[in-house]
Structure formats: C-alpha cells, structure tokens
Amino acid sequence: MRFKVGRGTPTSLTTVARGPLEVPEASTVNTFPVRAPVQAGDVIGFSKPAGDFSGCGVSVAGFTFSASTIDTALGSTDTFVAVGARAPISAQLEPDADGDGFGDETQDLCPSDADTVKACRDKEPPETTITAKPKKKVKKKKAVFEFTSSEAGATFRCSLNGAAFSSCTSPASLKASSGRNTFTVFAKDAAGNVDDSPATYSWNFKKKKKK
Asked: Of 40, 65, 150, 166, which has the fewest beta carbons less than 10 angstroms from its beta carbon?
C-alpha cells in the first residue's frame, strides 16, 4: 500500500503527496516514516498497486471514501464515493516552524532557517576590537597593534593607509609613514561571516629632528 495526502473536498481530492509502496504486516499496527508537507484540512489515505484487490481509500471523520483509480498519480484529482466502512489509519505530524516541508523533530536540524535542514549555519558576523595601539602622536616609526574578535577562531585581515587588505595576526608590527597614518582590521569567523564594520585607528608619526 502507499500513503497519500489528499486536498479538496471529501468527494473530490487532489493527490498532493504520496509515499513509497510499503508491504504491511498482518494483525499488527504498521508504522512507516514519510515526508509530506501538509496543510490544515488535508486528509490522509492509502492506495493499492495495480493488480491488488482494492482501489484508493481515504478516511474522513470515521468514514471511508473510495475511488475506482488503483493508484492515483501525484497532482491528479479523483472523485470519491462513500462506502461506509472505517479505515484504521492515522498519521502523527511534526511541526514545521520554518515552512520548508521538513519535520522539526526528526528531519530538520535547523527549524529556524528554511534554507537548510542541516545544523544551523552561523550567520552572525564577528565584531573586531583593537585592544592595543600607539598614542595619537608619536616620534617612533614602528607601531604595534593588538586586536581581538568576538568569536573564537576568527582570522584577520589588515590594511595600512588604504593598501590592499592582507592576512595578519595579533600583535601586528607596522612601519608608519611620516604624517597621518590609518590602520584598519576586520575579522572573519569560521563560517565565513565577515565583520562589515572594521576597526580602525589613526595616529600621527613625526620624525625626530636631527640635532
């Protein structure tokens, strides 16, 4: 038999989901897992493969309705007639918080993000902080900066005076140019998120006058 989900009225249902063919065991409760996004008002049912003894049946409010079609195709609409027998079938539903069609309890490891069913990807960018820096006015060409990220394991890229960013680590030792200098650094976390507000600091280097 095949698990199915119908949408419409009890006598006219469109097949919106169907599971694989299963072989149930007699005289026992059979349980089959299936992924099928549903809406309020949908009905569950089952169908038999060609050559079996019955057609398609759905259970609505304790009554069974049947159609002459042996195994209704996905997307097809069939007309059903009441036959009065009770069909002992039921489904246990899982919530789907992000509406991606995967159950939050056993199928979706990230129910807060419809773009993934794996473990939620970190989407928060790290924050970069400069923790040590030269004074605003110095007479030494060498400048040492220390910096950290709000996320452990982050990497850094630095720039001095508008040059292209390159990989750097803390502490970073730089050689200043005469006059105003600007140091910029940003962090990138393990998930690939980049701090879009880099930390920056400006200072002035003035050479000592020769005597």
From this structure: 40
Residue 172 neighbours by CB distance under 10 Å: 16
Instruction: Let me know: does 4 contact 44? Beta carbons within 8 Å.
Output: yes
Query: What are 178's two structure tokens?
Result: 């005469």
Backbone φ, ψ for residue 98 (5° rounding): -100, 5
- 95 within 8 A of 105, measured Cβ to Cβ: yes
What is the C-alpha separation between 9 and 71, in angstroms, rounded? 19
pLDDT digits (tens, 9 = 90+) for 125-180: 999 999 999 999 999 999 999 999 999 999 999 999 999 999 999 999 999 999 99
The residues, any chain, with a CB within 8 Å of residue 61's CB and separated by 6 or more, are none
What's domain 128-205's architecture? Sandwich (2.60)
**128-132 and 77-79 strand pairing:** unpaired
Cα separation of 30 and 33, whole Å? 10
Residues of CATH 2.60.40.10 domain(s) within the chain?
Answer: 128-205
Give the rounded distance of the alpha carbon of 70 from its chain centre. Answer: 38
Task: Report pTM.
Answer: 0.52
